[in-house]
Amino acid sequence: MKKKLIIVVVALVAAGGAYKTVLAKPATPAAKAKVEGAEPPGRDRPDPAAWSNPVARRRRPMKKKMLIIAVAALVVAGGAYKTVLAKPIEKAKKPNVEGTLYVLQKEFLINLADSRYAKVSAALLLDPKDHSAAAAGGHGGGAAPPEGYGAMTQEAIIRAIVTDALTGLDAGELEEAKKRDRLRKEIVERIHEETDVHADDILFPDLTVQ
Q: Helix H segments across the chain?
């Protein structure tokens, strides 16, 4: 950033120098003579510029070239300002989670192997295009859902899939993260095969094994 700022300053200085060289009004012969202590040109002292018309003609292309350089320097300075000092447009950040979380309200009580059991809460991460949890329709075409159930019409099937997948497992299948992740994938695959719910994932926010 500091390096770019130096480039902008150098470009502006160059543009200013070119302006002074090309666009600044040149001193008149009379002014030059006054500064140098000489008398201004008159009838007996012709203007020295009149003696050097060929030289003046040769200087005109050089003056035109310097004007082009000055304009180019200003363009470069303007571009450097836009690149370095202008505030960049920030892109909208992509959301970390896409879709809708649907919490299965009723907690699962699962029998495990070796007379152990687990209490599990679950939530579905639904695809953004999924509308299975829309309140319209509900259970039984507008009837209030049973206690512990939400608005998803096929929630009972989801609960049955989860119960079947977890019942009789060794406690380690739920306690170890990698094994639990494998179970989640298997449950999502069954949801796709057996229901019309478009779930991208299933989460177990709370899990207790006893």
A: 2-22, 29-36, 48-51, 53-84, 155-166, 171-175, 177-194
